[in-house]
Amino acid sequence: MEIIELKTSGKCEMVDITKRIKEAVYKNRWNDGILVVFSMHTTGGITINESYDPDVQHDLIRALDKMVPDLNFRHMEGNSDAHLKTSLIGAESTLIVEKGELLLGTWQGVYFCEFDGGRERRVLLKFIGK
């Protein structure tokens, strides 16, 4: 098991954590199996999406803002929209590791999605396999 710690700066942003995940796979000599990438927060999710064009991340956040506007929610902390966005994106992704390599498509990256930042965040990596 490995924990990635990161600090976000914006209220909503997508942080590319692909490189840090690949470093953990190499460092721990994780070989063949699956890797669960899990956000340890109720207002931050994990997604796999395009890593080539940063406009994709911008567009995703903009679309989520339109789908889940900041309404007059009953939750008193004022971040109910962040909880809903996290539920839509999800708290985890499962990745395949083969021969010590993270298997991703050419343009894919793994992102921590911040919806209530800036904050200090933790992402858990749990490897199951050899």
Automatic annotation (TrEMBL):
Transmembrane segment boundaries: none
Alphabetic keyword roster: Plasmid
Domain of life: Bacteria
Homology family: Belongs to the UPF0047 family.
Entry protein name: Secondary thiamine-phosphate synthase enzyme
Organism: Ilyobacter polytropus (strain ATCC 51220 / DSM 2926 / LMG 16218 / CuHBu1)
Organism lineage: Bacteria, Fusobacteriati, Fusobacteriota, Fusobacteriia, Fusobacteriales
